[in-house]
Here is the input.
Amino acid sequence: MSRVEKEGAKKRKTRIDKKRDVKPTISVDLKNCIYRLSYITRTPVKDVVEILCLKGLQSKKVIEHLSQFFRRDYSLNNTYYIGDFERNSIAGKIAQGKTDRVTTRFSQKDYERIRSLSEALDVTPSKATALLLDASVRNTNILNSFVKLYLHNHIDNNRMKELKMVLQYINNNNPHNEVVSWYSLFSLIYDDIKDTTLNVKEKINKWLEQYK
Here is the structure.
């Protein structure tokens, strides 16, 4: 392959692999939640938004929630959702209260999935991303899987087992009949341990000492 051909192939590869910027406008409350997730998991905001949206695209509960707004047909795996163009458009609706933008990036393949969702909703890809992100964050299972995966990647199995035991203890003895999630537990640890000089493993170890 000649030099010119190699450079051309490299440029084509760059174009294929290049991620697309999307800047959804969301409520300030949702933005604060995203930033908190970013803080406690040490994950860039744009990556948090991308991960949650991609999990939402695969969640039947999230898509079923959004399907009430579908004006065009949409499919997820073996489920087919019938759109209805007589439904009121949500294109002009904005989030309640103060709003702000966040930035994320999707691969071309994932952007096409976002675009398919936006066509079903009859909104822009940016608006579809905002709706998807909001629905994904409201889904406890998605938040739990996000935090739990992070914990699995950053602490050893013994500490993970101890955290599970603490979570079980809290839920079994919770006087308010509220289920404490992995996200709530991890957030609690960060609130209790204010020392920012500690890394994730050290914060969790210090917090677990209370239960020994």
Summary: The longest strand covers residues 20-22. The chain is about 60% helix and 10% strand. Strands lie at 20-22, 25-27, 74-76, 79-81, 99-101, 104-106.
